[in-house]
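Researcher: Sequence recovery benchmark, item below. Answer with residues only.
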């Protein structure tokens, strides 16, 4: 019998034992392989050359309405691991707030494999280093004081089992990369221009994506040219003007002020002491006007995204659904465990099904509500050029430098790398140090133009942090170019 088949037999027997111990639910995630590699070139030197490999098992049991979690890297001690999870659930039941409930059983059998041609972990270290070194050389220029090129690869195989009979095998494969050029402006302040590997939502996630010149290396000349423009630019003068967000900035706006506040555990207050709360209340779901009629936000199952993984860590298959439809909040990011509490607190059924948002960052972490692919649908207001042409007084903004968001995500203040001024339908000049700020709901209600498919980009976020102990998660955001009316810009940074 294979190693995995033997582990599976042990886990099935333990899940049955937990059912016999009056657990209403139990599950296990076996990480057979979990590899991470990071390479960072800084000023032509390989400064980070990091490789990590983990394997182990994490188990949860639900007893008397409380969840107990335990994990081990020792596959010979799976029984003890379940015993610890059971003891943890029995202890937690003594301090219970609202009893947890998984809802009706939903057994699933399945598997998932992300699209890739070349597994990055089969590419030799010298080949990877060569590609990054070449990009570093392309970035090198007399005006550039510092340059950084990074690559980050992930590969995981996870077997999921639960007491309802679900059995899922899935692979995770992700490739992230970024380049940044930096130099001091005439006031001695560092300016930067950067680029991150992204896609149109289709394609693959293997090493071949990073190696494509049009996807990555081909952007070095533009990055250098735009940094040169920033070095001689003036600071954006404060004032109210229209703000046109490119996806490089729009994705973070969506991440921080749609994604995070719509995580159900934050809405219920379970993250208050950790990542923060939400301005959304359970009873708002289905009625709250979150933005203008132009705002349609969806959880999308996008082929080429780190937020697409087939099944979540409760075995729920990923599926497309609306979060905000024509500006009205209609659903949230949720797992099975908290649905009953959300509906009870709202006094009606506001969240009928799991959004497949239960995700854990490793075998030794417990699943919590996470973003997957929180996307804004493209609209019918044309290309970026069309939106610029229709703008009298505005700025086009790209890439975050700084961000500050209220703990309930009701207010925000972002600093960006670059602004292009728009006057009477034309781009007239570059400004440095641009900032903008607003109130989340007022801001989205001022959304009045949404770009078409040509403006939509799938941006990867490799470092979303949440939970205690902290869990770093990979998510994707597909966003079009968006125009917001009359926004406060240029105040501080
Ligand atoms: Zn985040």
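Model:
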């Amino acid at each position: 019998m294979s190693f995995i088949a033997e582990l599976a037999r042990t886990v099935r027997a333990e899940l049955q034992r937990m059912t016999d111990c009056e657990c209403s639910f139990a599950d296990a995630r076996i990480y057979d392989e979990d590899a991470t590699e990071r390479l960072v070139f800084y000023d032509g030197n390989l400064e980070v050359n990091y490789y990590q490999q983990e394997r182990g098992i994490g188990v949860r049991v639900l007893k008397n309405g409380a969840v107990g979690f335990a994990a081990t890297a020792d596959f010979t001690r799976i029984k003890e691991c379940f015993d610890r999870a059971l003891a943890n659930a029995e202890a937690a039941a003594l301090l219970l707030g609202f009893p947890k409930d998984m809802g009706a059983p939903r057994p699933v059998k399945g598997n998932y494999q992300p699209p890739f041609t070349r597994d990055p972990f089969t590419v030799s270290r010298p080949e990877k280093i060569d590609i990054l070194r070449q990009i570093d050389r392309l970035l090198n220029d007399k005006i550039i004081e510092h340059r950084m090129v990074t690559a980050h690869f992930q590969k995981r195989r996870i077997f999921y089992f639960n007491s309802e009979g679900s059995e899922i095998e899935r692979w995770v494969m992700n490739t992230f990369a970024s380049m940044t050029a930096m130099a001091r402006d005439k006031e001695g302040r560092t300016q930067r221009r950067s680029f991150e590997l992204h896609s149109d939502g289709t394609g693959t996630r293997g090493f071949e994506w990073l190696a494509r010149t049009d996807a990555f290396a081909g952007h070095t000349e533009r990055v250098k040219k735009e940094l040169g423009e920033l070095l001689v630019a003036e600071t954006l003068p404060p004032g109210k003007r229209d703000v046109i967000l490119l996806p490089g900035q729009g994705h973070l706006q969506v991440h921080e002020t749609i994604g995070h506040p719509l995580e159900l555990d934050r809405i219920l207050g379970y993250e208050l002491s950790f990542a923060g709360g939400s301005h959304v209340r359970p009873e708002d779901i289905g009625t709250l006007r979150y933005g203008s009629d132009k705002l349609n936000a969806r959880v999308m199952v996008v082929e080429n995204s780190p937020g697409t993984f087939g099944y979540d860590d409760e075995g729920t298959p990923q599926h497309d659904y609306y979060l905000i439809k024509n500006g009205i909040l209609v659903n949230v990011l949720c797992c099975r465990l908290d649905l009953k509490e959300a509906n009870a607190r709202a006094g009606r059924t506001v969240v009928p099904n799991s959004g497949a948002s239960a995700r854990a960052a490793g075998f030794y972490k417990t699943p919590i509500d996470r973003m997957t692919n929180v996307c804004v649908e493209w609209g019918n207001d044309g290309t970026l050029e069309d939106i610029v042409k229709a703008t009298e007084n505005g700025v086009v903004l790209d890439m975050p430098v700084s961000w500050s968001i209220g703990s309930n995500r009701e207010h925000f203040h972002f600093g960006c790398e670059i602004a292009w001024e728009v006057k009477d339908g034309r781009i007239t000049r570059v400004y440095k140090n641009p900032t903008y700020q607003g109130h989340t709901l007022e801001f989205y209600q001022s959304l009045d133009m949404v770009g078409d498919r040509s403006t939509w980009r799938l941006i990867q976020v490799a470092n979303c942090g949440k939970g205690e102990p902290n869990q770093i998660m990979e998510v994707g955001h597909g966003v079009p170019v968006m125009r917001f009316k009359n926004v406060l810009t240029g105040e501080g940074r």
